[in-house]
Amino acid sequence: MINFVESEERRDLRAAVHQLGSKYGESYFYGAAARGAKTTELWDEAAKAGYLGVSIPEEYGGGGGDIGDLAAVVEELATAGCPLLLLVVSPAIVGTIIARSGTDEQKQRWLPGLASGESRYAFGITEPDAGSNSHQIVTRARRDGGDWVLSGRKTYISGVDEAGHVLVVARTEDARTGKLKPALFMVPTDAFVHQPIETGLVSPEKQFTLFFDDVRLPADALVGREDAGLDQLFAGLNPERIMAASQATGTARWALRKAVEYAKQREVWGAPIGTHQAIAHPLAQIHVEIEAARLLTQKAAALDAAGDLLAAGEAANMAKYAAGEVACKAVDQAIQTHGGNGLAVEYGLVQALANVRLSRIAPVSREMALNFIAQFSLKLPRSY
Hints:
This protein is of the alpha+beta class. The protein has three domains: about 10-120, Acyl-CoA dehydrogenase/oxidase, N-terminal domain (Butyryl-Coa Dehydrogenase, subunit A, domain 1, Orthogonal Bundle), CATH 1.10.540.10; about 125-225, Butyryl-CoA Dehydrogenase, subunit A, domain 2 (Beta Barrel); about 230-375, Up-down Bundle (Butyryl-CoA Dehydrogenase, subunit A, domain 3), CATH 1.20.140.10. About 50% of the residues lie in helices and about 15% in strands. The radius of gyration is 21 Å and the shape is globular. Pfam families: Acyl-CoA_dh_1 (PF00441), Acyl-CoA_dh_M (PF02770), Acyl-CoA_dh_N (PF02771).
């Protein structure tokens, strides 16, 4: 049974994180992007307060919470105007996979630094010819004595310049059948070449293409079991979608707040523009859609924490779809509410326009989310 009322502890967490995020705000986030700087101060302060490791088990220095607690952190920072993309990747995807699938030694090695904020990890799955189709990944890892040798390429990988390691999805050959199967490897970022991808995103966190040219890795770079790669991978994809939904709903809340404030203050013909239904109704509709997306996200997080990964996958895809749609709608309507001022840099909305559009594309496109829902929720024939 899903509880739709958050605990007092999580509500307190939300309030504290929002207070921290508001201390920095969109001027800090977009200012760092404009200067080519990073959001190091915010990251370090969030880590010191224990927010980055809130979902990491206590025995590894974390808060011992679940993915819903981390989702609250992600959402509230985005609501304050600081949508930290690496939060979606480092503690949510990599942290979850290692905590659930890593060996005891790997947990001891990788999780404490993640919880303290001293270590940041990226996640490498997308390839030029295998964007949404993880079954067609061609990056290979082959055994060579006691080592692994990694070859291939990844693209649109976030935060590589800030990470010490990348959790890379590769394929290995089954010694018994000869078939290729997915496996996960922790790869140090100084072991391969990476190049930035020029995009229109206004963010301190950049995208990269990674080139693995016979990168030699020790045996223990393999995370968990070689024969359980797909299950381990999917264990990290539900949290990824939940975090993406949380960040999108946070951004939608941020944009709606700015639109409402402006609609109350801006006067035309002797009255605030918010008195006019042409302004008020679209904002009210967005508020409804935000709350619906937040409830779906909460449901997905609760199911994931309960270990019902199949049901969590369904809810996570629905949450990701709903949140991405309303985030784009909210930013667009906030700009429309501001009129010409919506395109002025000082109001902080135009910078978010390209960024929020990403929420309909990654980490899973809206079309692939709908494919999942059609197949698994509606039991329609598979279309791909």
